[in-house]
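Input record (one chain):
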Amino acid sequence: MKIKILTIFPEMFESVLSASILGRAIDQGLIEVSVIDIRPFSDRKHKNTDDYPFGGGAGMVMLAQPIHDAMAFAMGEHFQGRRIYLGPRGATLTTAKARALAQEQELILLCGHYEGVDQRALDACVDEEISIGDYILTGGELAAMVLTDCVARFIPGVLGSAESPEEESFSDGLLEYPQYTRPREWQGRQVPEVLLNGDHAKIQAWRRRESLRATLRFRPDLLEKAQLSREDEKTLKELREACSCES
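The corresponding structure, as predicted from the sequence alone:
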């Protein structure tokens, strides 16, 4: 997959794209990420990319022209993919959305800044808008990093294990179960015995129960949309009854 990021602050991406799992995936050629500076595409004398908004108001608005030309450059002649603007009006990024985007051949991410982007540029250059949450950032760069990292995890080989992204929080609508590693005892706290006996069926059952417990405790709203089996419903009933008894 190819991901191209349009921004006026390309230096913000240097460390993110060179470190950890994402950096290794790029080095191995599993994913190709390029950052394109919008500023050189401005036709203004001083290469500025913003101006005052029509109608008045605080702040500046990003110009349509340099965004349009930068997008045309990023697309090239045979673009096949999706053009995404990282903005607060878009649908919230989810695991399902990231998995779907990972099937695309190419993504172009547009990072807005200041008070936003001239709507004409969005109308002409963007296929969809995506938000990473109901809050405001100073620009779309951090959101683009989040989306890139999230999508990359669904590219085969990036995580090293095909099962990893499917076992983590939100992959099936629930939060992930607790994780433990060595030593078996730390500050008087023991690793659950079920994880030490090698019985994979019991381990899977324990993990499912703990996943349901964590979701019920921290994000009960997720249970409304999660795909639950009859056994899951039975387990949730037992957990709720246990909580009622404790309170």
